[in-house]
């Protein structure tokens, strides 16, 4: 590797030659700014670290002032959260959250990829208006549509049903997904598509065999963001579910009010419920960056 | 089969193969992939809104079911004269504007720091994005109980560490409720802004920066005349997405203060009108007003001020 790069200077792979970035050149003169970045990063992480640490403390150690950083660690909080000693099991809500998030994410992708194709690769006329319409549905506050949704769900017997959440989460994430996918698909080289068209490939074949493989990183980024937003959603879940279809965030709030406050247990619950999103987000950081900057912009 | 084929082809050329019909067929093949998403979204989001619109003109309190009837604009008069609702409009504006502005500025500063190379840059980025990944309800509970709590919260604990047992021990949420909500939301949204802006900084063409350096531009000049214009779309995107989500914030208000102490924003107020007062008509009217306001502001922002929709007119 190194010998190859040595013979080919930065021009061959400018994005890999990070040392040539001007930012780097300025950076050498000011190590203090690197230190500042570390301090800011640690400050932002501190509450998360505190949540995790408290989750491993006993209730007595969690509720002291000044805080007991070096107190003994225990799994008691997690044991109570998972219902070993008391009350409700977190598994049904966790499974509901997983079902609602994963199924709605898959549905979003199935709807958004063809739509994005129609907005970028062979755009319909007035495609900016359509794109604007998609986004404008996000401006409609959830609460403004909540009552009819509630009444309809009540009429058709879909209250406290996880599939109601699947449908609503799909509509909640679809606009953003279309926006993101549009910019990712716009980067698919037109020559590949022309070649596929000459070979007589139909729309579905083109989507499945050409576009999806090429745009895979963008699809992954979109899926990750849809998953995060669905897993985190609370307002719909709170109003439309009760016992059977309760999701993890709603379970978390019930946890506090019904039993008084046990700080270590609440922190253990908050940690456990955030874990899937934290793990997915950390594992796919680059995809996340790519997705959020959505090339609205490209 | 081969014997039959010629006879099958003797059918006359289909009459609809005229140029307009062909173009129409082309248009439909372009629209077809769009339709499932469009229809789904219209059915799930627009129809309920139409229902909200209808209910907003009705007297409908589920506690008094036999009094259901047409109310005219009565609910709207209530909405505009109700002091609680007016206050929650102001709260929503203050909350959204301050959270978006503060987290954009902080995010820009941190993105600039992280765009430089230093030891452990990847690790710092990982630390930075964690707040965005914590489930919002969990984050709100964390701030309320583990950080802001006057007796054993971390903030007052740190004060005790620094200046001993006679340190001031403020009850943060009671003393500065709106600021407490803003602080927790800024903490959650700054990483989001930072990620968008960092992507923007890294997409900046290097040759322009090199050229500026060769021409002897100062770091400040480079930032003002090269980086900032390039970042405009990214700043607008962050502000747009941030506003859409923060206007609707429910979790933080619900968890931290339960809308008390002047922190009830519109989503929370509508939620209580609907869920506790059971006044469906008025809740719907308030919802319609929010929608009208948001769409008006967003349309202006997107179509007039922003550059997001002015880019390439596509490959049409």
UniProtKB/TrEMBL annotation, chain A:
CDD domains: TM_PBP2. Its main location: membrane. Keywords: Cell membrane, Membrane, Transmembrane, Transmembrane helix, Transport. Residues 1-24 are annotated as: Disordered. It comes from the Bacteria. It is a multi-pass membrane protein. Residues 94-284 form the ABC transmembrane type-1 domain. The chain crosses the membrane at residues 32-53, 98-119, 131-150, 162-181, 210-230, 236-255, 262-284. It is found in: Cell membrane. Belongs to the binding-protein-dependent transport system permease family. PANTHER family: ABC TRANSPORTER PERMEASE PROTEIN, MALTOSE TRANSPORT SYSTEM PERMEASE-RELATED. This is Carbohydrate ABC transporter permease. It comes from Cryptosporangium minutisporangium.
Automatic annotation (TrEMBL), chain B:
Pfam families: BPD_transp_1. Keywords: Cell membrane, Membrane, Transmembrane, Transmembrane helix, Transport. It is a multi-pass membrane protein. Residues 1-21 are annotated as: Disordered. The chain crosses the membrane at residues 32-58, 89-114, 126-143, 178-201, 234-256, 283-305. SUPFAM superfamilies: MetI-like (SSF161098). Residues 89-301 form the ABC transmembrane type-1 domain. It is found in: Cell membrane. The keyword Repeat does not apply. It comes from the Bacteria. Belongs to the binding-protein-dependent transport system permease family. This is Sugar ABC transporter permease. It comes from Cryptosporangium minutisporangium.
């Amino acid at each position: 590797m190194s010998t190859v790069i040595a013979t080919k200077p930065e021009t061959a792979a400018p994005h890999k030659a990070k040392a040539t970035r001007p930012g780097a050149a300025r950076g050498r003169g000011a190590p203090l700014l690197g230190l500042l970045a570390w301090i800011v990063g640690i400050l932002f992480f501190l509450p998360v670290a505190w949540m995790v640490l408290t989750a491993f403390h006993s209730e007595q150690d969690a509720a002291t002032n000044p805080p007991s950083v070096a107190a003994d660690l225990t799994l008691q909080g997690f044991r109570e959260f998972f219902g070993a000693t008391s009350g409700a099991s977190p598994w049904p809500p966790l499974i509901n959250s997983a079902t609602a998030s994963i199924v709605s994410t898959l549905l979003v992708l199935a709807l958004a990829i063809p739509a994005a194709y129609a907005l970028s690769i062979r755009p319909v006329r007035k495609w900016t208006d359509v794109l604007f319409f998609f986004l404008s549905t996000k401006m409609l506050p959830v609460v403004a549509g909540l009552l009819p949704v509630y009444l309809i769900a009540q009429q058709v017997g879909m209250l406290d049903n996880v599939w109601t959440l699947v449908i609503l989460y799909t509509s909640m994430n679809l606009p953003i997904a279309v926006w993101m996918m549009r910019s990712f698909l716009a980067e698919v080289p037109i020559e590949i598509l022309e070649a596929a068209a000459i070979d007589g490939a139909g729309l579905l074949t083109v989507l499945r065999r050409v576009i999806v493989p090429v745009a895979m990183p963008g699809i992954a980024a979109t899926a990750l963001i849809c998953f995060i937003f669905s897993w985190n959603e609370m307002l719909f879940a709170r109003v439309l579910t009760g016992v059977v279809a309760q999701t993890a965030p709603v379970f978390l709030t019930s946890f506090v009010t019904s039993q008084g406050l046990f700080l270590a247990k609440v922190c253990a619950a908050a940690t456990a419920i955030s874990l899937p999103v934290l793990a997915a987000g950390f594992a796919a950081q680059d995809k996340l960056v790519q997705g959020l900057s959505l090339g609205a912009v490209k | 089969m081969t014997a039959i084929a010629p006879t099958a082809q003797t059918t006359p050329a289909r009459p609809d193969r005229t140029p307009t019909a062909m173009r129409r067929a082309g248009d439909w093949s372009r629209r077809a992939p769009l339709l499932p998403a469009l229809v789904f979204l219209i059915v799930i989001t627009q129809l309920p809104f139409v229902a909200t619109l209808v209910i907003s003109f009705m007297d409908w309190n589920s506690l008094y079911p036999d009094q259901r009837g047409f109310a005219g604009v009565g609910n709207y008069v209530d909405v505009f004269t109700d002091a609680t609702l007016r206050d929650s409009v102001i709260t929503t504006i203050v909350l959204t504007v301050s959270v978006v502005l503060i987290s954009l500025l902080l995010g820009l500063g941190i993105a600039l720091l992280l765009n430089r190379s230093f030891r452990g840059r990847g690790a710092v980025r990982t630390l930075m994005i964690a707040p965005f990944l914590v489930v919002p309800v969990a984050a709100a509970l964390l701030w309320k109980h583990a950080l802001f709590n006057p007796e054993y919260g971390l903030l007052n604990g740190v004060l005790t560490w620094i200046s001993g047992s006679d340190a001031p021990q403020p009850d943060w949420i009671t003393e500065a409720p709106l600021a407490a909500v803003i602080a927790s939301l800024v903490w959650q949204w700054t990483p989001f802004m930072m990620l968008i802006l960092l992507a923007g900084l890294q997409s900046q063409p290097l040759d322009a920066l090199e050229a500026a350096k060769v021409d002897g531009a100062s770091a400040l000049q480079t930032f003002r005349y090269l980086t900032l214009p390039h970042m405009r779309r990214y700043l607008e995107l962050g502000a747009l997405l941030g506003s859409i989500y923060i206007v609707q914030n429910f979790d933080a208000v619900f968890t931290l203060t339960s809308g008390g102490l002047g922190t009830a924003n519109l989503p929370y107020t509508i939620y209580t009108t609907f869920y506790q007062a059971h006044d469906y008509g008025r809740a719907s009217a308030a919802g319609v007003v929010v929608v009208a306001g948001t769409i008006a502001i967003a349309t202006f922002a997107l179509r007039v001020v922003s550059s997001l929709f002015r880019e390439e007119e596509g490959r049409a």
